[in-house]
Amino acid sequence: MTFPKDITAGTLCQCTGKLSYREDFGTGRQMIVVQRCVTPAEWNISLRVTLGLRDFRTQAKRCQDLFCQRRDTNIEMKRQRVTDEVNTEERSAFAVLTTDERPTMVIKRRSGSSVGEIILQNQAAEELLTQVVSDESLYPQFAAAVDSVYKTGQSAEAIVNTLQHTIKTKSATLSNQQYVIVTAKKMKEAKRSWVQLQHDAIPPRRNLFEESPEHPIGPLINTVEQDLISRTLGTSSVFLLITSELVEPGIVTFFAVNPGVAARYGYSNPLQIRGKTSQELGLSPPEVMNMARQHRSHYDPNIQRASYSYDIANVTMLCENKLISPGVNLSVLFALSKPEPTLPAPPKSILPPVILDQRWNNHHWDVFLEDLLNHAKDNAQYTSPTRQKLPAAFFENPNCVYCYVYQGAEGFLPSGQSDGFRWKSSCSTTSQGCLKKRYFYASTADGKKLRRRVMWTEKIPNLFIVEYRHISHCGLVQAEYLLGPSMMDWPVVVQHLCAQKNHQVLRAMNEISQHFDLGAMLSETPAPDEPHEVISYVNGILSHWATDHHNKNIPLL
Fold first, then answer.
1. 355-392, pLDDT tens digit by residue?
2. Contact 339, 502 (CB under 8 A)
3. How many independent structural domains does the chain possess?
4. Among 79, 166, 255, 479, which residue's beta carbon has the most beta carbons within 10 A?
């Protein structure tokens, strides 16, 4: 057998074909286990190396079996006594993957075995993915992602290969046999910037509470545990956390939480959660990885912040995540309960004053529109039975948003050219919680580009929100620029919905977002390697928001 140069001796069991090898390296020991070793002409063996454990018996127990890369299909079928029919089925099912430009491989784990066999890979995968499997510095995260798919059936993700690629793992089933499909994709520059912050993060299990009391994170930990934002709003619907980045795949450390989060995990005092991991609090690694993907997909490296929302049961969570120190995030979450069936809108005389500066970012606007659908279900006077055409006023200002609720005997789509434009569809329907969306694009005669969005929920049939925007408009949706047909009385609708408890919380979230945006415009956002400056910056924003909120005298919840 031919092995890498550093392999000079070993014990080969003729019965099992297993080679065990051990060599001391001064500060640690190396253990290599290869299963089903045959001749070099038949197999190209990728070795799994585990380093650093001093006790040989402990290391032997923890050392995992290697992935073995197949070189010749026919020989492998003979050696593993797999029928031609099964392998033909595998080849037919997965053959299309070999044409993918991305590095792609298929891994199979037989029932009762912990060995992952690479049964197929395209040419692009040979160098990159073989490197990952054989490199002890890259393998653990990759192996954890593959193992997670086998155990949970959910997709997982690992960032490997000197921060240049994202490797994704996906479950597939063929003839009751589970497979893992692995693909690698080169990261975009913005994502690499975020990953670099991960790479430079604090060491795993860093204990901020055993360090100097002058550590800059300390004042913010106190601010979180003393619940500044919740006390300012007078609500228990806000959750504050200071957490680490991923210390292992699917695991983060909680440095500080407010009383609301502590109660959520069954603790009476937020001090009891200091330093605990997500696993210790009952969060599974797939749950944490899903949240990490949400954060990463919405992260803006220019302002070191992510804004997004997601649904849990009957609650929508609005999230603001801010990088406040290398490897440390401040998260502000608001819980919005799904609205109960709405009552008819009250007369204008008893509505609160008009909120002229009401505005929404994209995520909050979608939450508002979903509530509008529920409101229109019980208030048909705000719906249009016909498809509308864009008014001239819409084209006078690129900030204008023309929006209305359509309720017809048939669905809104297909709409043809009923509004005067020939639309090109994005071809797919996207979802955010219960809200379904379709996007369409068109150009005017003078070259202005427009976007139309049609939204609905399966719970309310034949009711659609139709929204038109200028593609050049990518900022906040502002109440003063909302347009609609005559039955769409936007001032009354906005007043009525914003008077509800959910939208008082939504408005508070908008305020915090605006203060972060204002801070980014008025001064340069501190670099993450300047923790004193970052903490001062974030503390200043939250304190200024609390003062401003109080001065506006917005009714507390």
1. 556 788 787 788 889 889 988 988 889 999 988 899 99
2. yes
3. 2
4. 255
Distances, alpha carbon 518 to alpha carbons 289, 390, 541, in Å: 31, 33, 9
pLDDT digits (tens, 9 = 90+) for 10-56: 444 444 444 444 433 333 333 333 333 333 333 333 333 222 222 32
Q: Is residue 73 part of a domain?
A: no
How confident is the model at residue 351, as a pLDDT? 44
Q: First vs last Cα of the chain: how many Å apart? A: 74
Going by C-alpha positions, the residue among 169, 172, 171, 149 that lies closest to residue 158 is 169
- Based on the domain organization, do 450 and 393 belong to the same domain? yes
**How far apart are the C-alpha atoms of 465 and 455, rounded to whole Å?**
5
In this structure, how many other beta carbons lie within 10 angstroms of the beta carbon of residue 543? Answer: 14
List all residues 6 or more positions away from 92 whose beta carbon is below 8 Å from its beta carbon: none
| Tokens of residue 549, six digits | 């909120």
Contact 183, 219 (CB under 8 A): no
* CB environment 281-312: b (16+ within 10 A), e (fewer): bebebbebbbbbebbbebbebebbbbbbbbbe
Which DSSP string do the residues of 325-392 spell out, in sequence order? Answer: ETTEEEEEEEEEEPPPPPPPPPPGGGSPPP-TT-EE-HHHHHHHHHHHHHHHHH-GGGEESS-----G
Burial class (CB in 10 A: 0-12, 13-18, 19+), 550: exposed
| Pairing relationship of beta strands 383-384 and 238-244 according to DSSP bridges | unpaired
Tally of CB atoms within 10 A around 503: 24
Q: Are 314 and 456 within one domain?
A: no
* Spatial separation of the C-alpha atoms in residues 389 and 385, rounded to whole Å: 13
- One DSSP character per residue, 238-278 reads EEEEEEES-SBTTB-BEEEE-HHHHHHTT-SSGGGGTT-BT
Q: Same structural domain for residues 358 and 390?
A: yes
Domain that holds residue 487: 348-499
108-116 long-range contacts, CB within 8 A, separation 24+: 108/177, 108/178, 108/179, 108/180, 109/150, 109/178, 109/180, 114/64, 114/65, 115/35, 115/65, 115/66, 115/67, 115/68, 116/65, 116/67, 116/146, 116/180
Determine the distance from the C-alpha atom of residue 376 to the mean position of all C-alpha atoms in its chain, rounded to a whole number.
Answer: 31
Q: How far is CA 385 from CA 106, 353, 409, 410, 437, in A?
A: 52, 30, 8, 10, 20
Residues 393 and 442 in one domain: yes
Instruction: Evaluate whether 317 touches 337 at the Cβ level (below 8 Å).
Output: no
**In sequence order, which ranges of 425-552 are alpha helices (DSSP H)?**
490-498, 501-522, 531-552
d(CA 258, CA 396) in angstroms, rounded, equals 47
Closest CA to 325 of 156, 162, 211, 187: 211
pLDDT at residue 53 in the model:
27
Amino acid at 376: A
Reading the block at residue 426, the tokens are 């994005």
Residue 510 falls within a domain, yes or no? yes
**178 to 110, 120, 151, 169: CA distances (angstroms):** 8, 14, 10, 13
Angstrom distance (rounded) from CA 429 to CA 79: 47
Residue corresponding to tokens 């804004």: 307
